[in-house]
Each structure stands twice: as structure tokens, then as C-alpha cells.
Specification:
The structure is a homotetramer of 285-residue chains.
Chain A: E1 6-14, H1 19-29, E2 33-42, E3 47-55, H2 63-77, E4 80-85, E5 90-96, H3 101-111, E6 117-124, H4 130-135, E7 140-142, H5 150-163, E8 168-171, H6 180-185, E9 190-194, H7 206-213, E10 217-224, E11 234-241, H8 248-271, E12 275-278, E13 281-284
Parallel strand pairs in A: 5-6, 5-8, 6-7, 8-9
Antiparallel strand pairs in A: 1-3, 1-4, 2-3, 9-10, 10-11, 12-13
Helix pairs in contact in A: 1-2, 3-8
Chain lengths: 285, 285, 285, 285
């Protein structure tokens, strides 16, 4: 996890010579020490991806100054970029319905310090898990959703999310399909957990599908939500063996373990600025 | 692996009381010691599955006598059953094309004693791997296949397989779709390895499909071949993590490792009489 | 998980012919339907292990009658045995100190129905996790322990455990070594989670040891507590890859995930009567 | 795997500002395009590790010139470094005894193009596997070893290895302990596979030890050979689940699969210049 007094720069651009040098020179000019860096080039597509994690102690420039110079340098190379300082914690909204395993897990991880973020609110379409939000003293907002009010309720949710300056939405087994308006407000900033190893068993009741097909593995997929359901860029996938002894209830139980670990892994990668989306794929440094 | 002087009884029938007792009593009557036994009941479907692995040393009946009595007892309960003696090694034909990793692996495992079978012949549609069959002194038959001769060549293959009394066909990355005639000659006795975790990425070029989709796992599936391609009963599946660093070549390389391990696992389960097919699912004890 | 109206019989004895038949006949005599059964023979040691899971609906005997007949039959063969009815939930005491991940996990699993038991009390040497016991309304008893009062405090704990008719103690990262008196009161009924893949990294600070050694895997081991620390019969082990990028904090974090999954797996196996201890080894059916 | 027309630079030095920039500037000055790069800093120890994989097509300097300039630049920062061109294949000697699974595996991988190296000779203390070396037309030298001739035989082996300009020795289940003289001739250039997850089960017969202890996992460890047996820097570890059903023979069988995969993984990492040794630990980029 990003420790205090560090920053992370993510960038991508058409591949060309001198990209590393350009960034490294800019940073060293301000007396910045790079702690970790990874670079990847998709040679076929000709795209360059870069993550630089650096110490800001002793940095000989203000953060604004650094942002400004990066903007100039990145413009020169046609780079898309994002600079995050560890102290500026991302603000995460968790969406839940009635299943508790994923939200328990996220709140536990947050409590023990695994997730570098604030969780200022939880949104649900049901009252069921309010008691648990209360344990952690996190505001819990309920927007009951039915066919008629869905659009209207989502608009209220969006307003609330914006009021709270939310950076990332985590769908912790939220059992509603988000509308395009919601998704467009938070592009590549909504993480969903699907309870199968996509593209296998898209759609509803994947454990029932898996049971019917007699597979010997069950799994889960964490991905960014896109308008095209179950087709968003995959961030992480987990899997476990299954056998004829597993009833559907057993698959669901195994799934709970995989879902929460896989979702947490994706959320942590996002919070630590390790992910670059790229078409419908991801680079996860 | 089944050790010498043992036998394995596999059976299935509609669930009813007294099934275990019926089998156990029959065996103890002939002074037979059960070494391992597993039973599974599909409560929903009401089907009983049983595997009994026993010592034949000290058995107070001839094999024929035992077979006869089992036939009678099993008829009483509507049981389908199969009794195999470890000494009567199954006869396996390996089908290959040009990829060598699966056949190398099977022949190595056979040599070091992991597979309780004979491998009296290898069939291919190409000459390429003859040199390797020669190392192990296994007859290597080539039946080149094109659109026009496919039916005719398969008939020759079937005749050859029957001449060699083949019990099990292993498609070790054999790159031809078998016709229904072939499959019907060897029902639940042809094991294929598909290079994805079915039902994801059916059909051709699964690694390319996986790469395009940006998945974070690659895998393989060993299944019995059925007329409906890629829909046969799954025996074993394997999986490994992948990342953006993996080119298609890397996925293929990782796949080779998973394919051979998964195929060998399925073949071993079949040879040790651990599999009962059941609709398009399997019980693998 | 054992469903209602079922029972599980676990037994072991010197191997001899007719054991399966004896048990199967006794059960069928009372019109009992066996749902699942596994048998294992350690041929070298000559020991027979058996687990029978059966339906008690339609059983033509009282539970007492069945117990009595089993006692007689088992005496005949020198069998050690245990019969458990699913409705008679085991009573579990959780021991914790300050780490919350294992107890959170167990209580979540209990809540969603993964663990067939009652959890009537939690014992700790610290106040820290009382707030969480309160969420689930489970009595939380604190026995602060120091060098001088250890013996005396353990005696009080034992008395309390006996008062609550506790069947199983789960040490959910309880950071005290139990004395022999405690262990002797609950033979093979105390499950501990050690944060390494024993026998590697016994003793204190295993993640630090693992980091120093530069291993590429971290893991955890659930085992029955015995007088000989870290040498108890192993029930389950879990493992995950690590790399040079992992700091000690990362290893601890990965460890938390493995510990809770591994501990829960062991507890579930115990509750479902799937474990037979055998020297310092276990059979986990 | 490194593709043609690429080179890899590995370096380590005390951490200081400007290291990335220094290397990136040097490379861009010669019109070199970086394809992949990873950097890691051990903040506690204050050491910087760097791997740069770059395209040499269009490089505006001779290889000698590049080497010379790198030497100068690296001297300035106290860097230890190694530059490898993909075309200059490393020369690998495989050491074997009687177990065939690891050498089969390495030769198959070499044949299908997974290993970027030449394998000009195989050394053994037994004749047994000569037939297999013959299949691949690789010279096979036998040096029988007993207590009396060990030193003398090793000197001959060293002479032979030097005559063949061997860069890397792979001990593919070679059942002799190498003397310090051999190890000192090839520091961090001898890879061994130990058949347990070190530090568990050091020494002889680890599968027997694992069986006796009743562990639920078996594994293998690939490490650089050092004078202190089983204590060399670990490169890769693999693991698989085991149960009471596994006899020692089963553990050995499972071990064979893990050993060959783990050994191959380590060898590939070495050949692709992904490993930096560091005390008794490794960085594997």
C-alpha cells in the first residue's frame, strides 16, 4: 500500500523513444527519489504504459508546480496521465444489497489499514445491512429501487455521490444493474464483482449455471462496470476447485470467499494507482 | 494408482436403502477386504454412486464367480456397474498431431509408473512425432486427413483401434474433430484436452480469445469427447494466473503446462476407475 | 455442511474384513439411508477409518437405541467411534486477543450459515474486540493474563468453558500459549491457526522469519493444539505466492487472508465431523 | 522470453537520486527504445534494483561502445551491472542422476522454444539417461562418483564446463552435493531444485518427512546452490495440496510435477535476466 509522503504517477501514450528519460529527468530536477517504477510496452499496439511511485520528502517543488510541469511535459508526448498523492485519500462509496460478505470484508480491511481510502458513505437498495454500517459509524443511505423509480432514484444517488466527492464506487454484490448515466458519471471508477470467471457464465445465477455444466472450478471476476454488462475491463480473477460433492450451496459458499478476496484485490490495486485501462483490457502493475 | 492384486468396482443406480450393505455383504462373503470406498448420493436426482477398491488376495471366489454374483446383485437394484482388476491393464491409444507437449508428458508418466495402462499404439495425422514414439518403441500410425478422405480414414482408424482392443483414446492435442461414428464407438472412453476453462472460449484459438478479452487467468479442460463439441462431461480443469505482461505466446506457453497436467490428471482418474459419467457431468472420486 | 435430519458416524479400528458390512447392516436394519460415506485404510499401519453420513428421517429406532447398538457392534471390532446428530449443534468458544480478522471471519460465516454450531461465548485476554462481540450479541469474557496469574486465570476459563458445555475451542489468533491442563481438558478439541506452513517457521514472528529467508510463498496452518507447541495434528494448510515486492506488512496482510480461510476450513471440517486424528496426523474426509 | 534484437540490463547499487534518469538518458542518447523496465528499492537496506529490457534495432552505437559507456556510468554510481544481448544465448549444462522428469521437461521446453539458451552438454554420475540425451543429440558425459574419487571427478567436470564455456548449471535432480570448489566457480550460476518448500524439510527424503508430519501441502524450491546446502537464495517455489489419501508414492508423484514446473520457472527467469541476487534473497522481476 502507498505509504505516507509518496506519490504515484500513471501514464500512457503512443510509444516513442525517450519517454522514460523525459519523466525521470523531470523528477530528478525536483530532487525526487523514485521508489518503484514499472513500464510496459504493448509492441503490437505501439502503446507505452508507465507507473512511477516516488518519495515526496525533499521534493524541491510545490505539488502545484510539479502538476504544472508534468502537464507540459506530458502534453509534449501526447501522454494521458494521473498524479496521486498518498495523503489525498480517495473517497469510496460502497453499494450493497443484502449479501454481507463483501462489505464486511471491505470494512474489515479498511479498519486494519489495508485500504488507503476514506469510506464516507454506503448506498443500498435495502435496509438490511444498516446495522453493520453503524458499527463502523458510516452513513448508510437507502434508495429502494423498483421498475418505476429506478431512473429517479439513480439521479438522487448521483447527486449524493457528487456531494460527497466520491472518487470510486465499489459494487459489493449490489444486485441492481447500473444505468448508463451512472456509469458515464464514473468512467473506470466503478468496480463490480461478478460471481464467475468471465466470460464463462455471464448473466444471472452463475453458480447455478456452473453446477449444471458440471465444472470443476468456480471463480469470480472483478471488473470496471461498463454499459455493456459483464464486458467491462477485467481487473482481477480468482478461482477455486470444485467437485461433485459441491451442492449449489457449496458453490455459493466457495464463491463468497473468492468474491471478497478478488474484489478487495481489485479495489486495492485501484486505490494504489496500479491500474491503467486500455480498450477493454487493463494493465495492473 | 491401483496397486497389483486389487480391483475396483464402480456403480450407480437409483438411490434406495441397503445398497452399501448389499455390496459389502457380497464382498465379505468372499472374504474380500475393502481398502477404500467412497459413496455419493445426488439427493436431488435420487442417484447413488459408489466406488469400492479392494484387495483380491485371499478372495474366496474366482473372478468369474465374483463377476457373476455382482451381475445378479446389481440387477436386483438396477445398478450399472463396472469391475476392473488392476492386472488387466487398460489399453490406451494416443492421438496426436504436431504439438508434442502432451504426448511427451503422457509417455514420461507411463515410463515412471504413474499410469496403470498399456500404450500399444499412437495415431496421428502427421509424421512429425514419429521420432518420439520410436524412443519408447510404440507403433506410430499416420492417417493424413483432408476434407475428402476424413470419413474413410476414420473407418480405418476405428478398425485399427478395434484390432488393438483399445479401451481408451486420449486426444493429446489432436487437431481434428472426431466424427460421431468414432465417438459412438468409444462412448465415455475418449478424453480430450481443450485449451481453455470451458465453457469460456469454446472453439478455435482460445488463447487468442483470452488475450483479446484481457482475462487474468488461463486454463485448460479435460473432458470426454461427445458429438457436441466442447460440451462433453468435464473431468478436470486447471488454471493459472496471467497478466498484461503475457503475450499470446506466453499464454500458449502457460497453457502447455496446464494442458499436460490437466490431461494427465483426467487420464489417471479414468485408468484408476475413479470416474462415473452422469448426464453431462462426472463424479470423480 | 450437514443438513438437518442427518447424522454422522466417525470410526476407526484395526483393519479387518467385514467392517463395512457390519456398519452397513446395522444401519439398514434400522431403515437408515446412507447419503455419503468414505472409507480409508492405512495399509501400512493396518488401520481402518470410516465416515458415514446418513439420513435419520424414517429411522426405525430411537437415537438412544442406535447409540446402544453401535456401542455393542463397535466393541466387537475394537472400534473407536463418535456419532453426531446435525441438530445437536456443537458449542464453540472462540479465543481472541487483539487481531480481529479471524474472529470477524468466523462470526460472518456463522451468521450466513456456513458453520453448524452455536457460539455461546468469546474469551479474550484483552478488551479490544468486545465491541464486535456485541454486534453479534455474544457474551465476551476477559481474562487478562500475565506471568503470575496465568495458571489461576486458565482454571477460571476452564470452569467457564465447562459451565457452557463447550465442545470445541477455536483459537482465532489468541496470542497466549495454552497450558497442558487446558489442552488435556479438550483433547483434539482445540483448533489453532499458526501463521506459517508448518513445519517451516515454527515459533514467534513467522512472517519476519519468512521475509528474512526470502521465501516465495507464505502460508498458514490450522492444527489441533497439543502440549508440544506447533507440533499438533495438521488439519488444513493454505498458501499464497510472495515476491521481493512484499514488505513484512504485505506478508502479514496476505497472511490474514490465508489464516482466516484456513482456520475456517478446519473449523468447518471439525463441525461436520470429517476429521479423525491419528497419531500426530489427521484424516480429513 | 527475450525476443531477438533485444538486450537486458540488470543493475543494483546503493539507492540515490537520479539513477533512473542516468540510465534512461544514456540509452536515449543512443536512440534506444526501452520495451519494459522495472525498478525496485529496498528502502530499509537502501538498495536500488533495476531491470531494463530494450530494443537494439536502430541503436546508434556498437555493442562495445554501449558496454563501455555503461561501465563508465555505472562506476559513477557504484552500480553492479550485467548487460545481455538476446542473441548471445547462455550456455547451459544440465546435471542429472537417474530421475528423468526434470531433464525431460527442460529438453522439451528447449525444443519448443521456451528457453533462450544452448544446451551443449549433459553431465551425469550414471549412464541411465544417455538414451534420452541421444534423442536430442546432446553430448552426455558420465563421471561416476564415490567417496574416494569425488574431488578428482569434480575437477574434471569443472574443466569440461570451462571448455564448453558454460554460463549456467542446472541440477535437474542431480543427487550429489556439489563441493565448494564447484560452487565457487559458478557463483549464483548453479540452479538446484529441492523437493520441499524450504525451509521445511531440509536434507534427505523430504517427501518421507512430509508424510510423517502429516502435512496438507507438498512443494518444491528452486534456488541457487551455495556452500551452505538448502540455504541458497530462493528463486521460485511451487506447492500442491495433499491429503491422507496420498501415500509416499503419491507425494513423490505430485512432487515430480511441482519440481519440473518450479525448476523450469527458475531457469527461464535466469535465462531472461530477471534475477538479481541480494544477500541470501533474490529479486525476480
Amino acid at each position: 500500500m502507498s505509504r505516507p509522503n509518496t506519490a504515484t504517477l500513471l501514464l500512457r501514450c503512443p510509444d516513442q523513444k525517450g519517454l522514460n528519460a523525459a519523466i525521470a529527468n523531470l523528477l530528478v530536477r525536483h530532487n525526487i527519489n523514485i521508489l518503484d517504477a514499472q513500464q510496459h510496452t504493448d509492441e503490437e499496439a505501439g502503446i507505452f504504459f508507465h507507473r512511477v511511485y516516488f518519495d515526496v520528502v525533499g521534493m524541491a517543488a510545490s505539488r502545484d508546480q510539479l502538476q504544472k510541469e508534468l502537464a507540459e511535459e506530458c502534453a509534449r508526448y501526447g501522454m494521458e496521465w494521473r498524479l496521486s498523492f498518498a495523503e489525498q485519500k480517495k473517497r469510496v462509496a460502497i453499494f450493497v444489497s443484502k449479501y454481507e460478505h463483501c462489505i464486511y470484508d471491505l470494512l474489515l480491511r479498511h479498519k486494519v489499514g489495508e485500504l488507503n481510502c476514506d469510506i464516507p458513505l454506503i448506498i443500498s437498495n435495502h435496509e438490511d445491512l444498516r446495522y453493520f454500517a453503524d458499527v463502523f459509524k458510516i452513513p448508510y443511505f437507502v434508495f429502494p429501487i423498483n421498475k418505476d423509480n429506478k431512473h429517479e432514484q439513480e439521479l438522487k444517488e448521483i447527486a449524493l455521490l457528487q456531494e460527497y466527492n466520491i472518487d470510486l464506487i465499489v459494487m459489493a454484490r449490489y444486485m441492481q444493474v447500473l444505468s448508463d448515466s451512472m456509469i458515464n458519471c464514473f468512467p473506470n471508477r466503478i468496480i463490480n464483482i461478478h460471481h464467475s470467471t468471465l466470460p464463462a457464465f455471464k448473466g444471472a445465477k452463475p453458480y447455478h449455471q456452473a453446477f449444471e455444466r458440471g465444472v470443476k472450478l468456480v471463480g469470480a471476476t472483478a471488473h470496471y462496470a461498463t454499459a455493456d454488462l459483464d464486458e467491462g475491463p477485467i481487473i482481477a480473477q480468482g478461482v477455486e476447485g470444485s467437485s461433485h460433492e459441491d451442492t449449489i450451496e457449496d458453490l455459493v459458499r466457495k464463491g463468497r470467499d473468492i468474491e471478497r478476496v478478488t474484489l478487495a484485490q481489485a479495489v486495492r490495486a485501484h486505490l494504489d494507482d496500479k491500474i491503467i485501462v486500455y480498450g477493454h483490457r487493463t494493465i495492473v502493475f
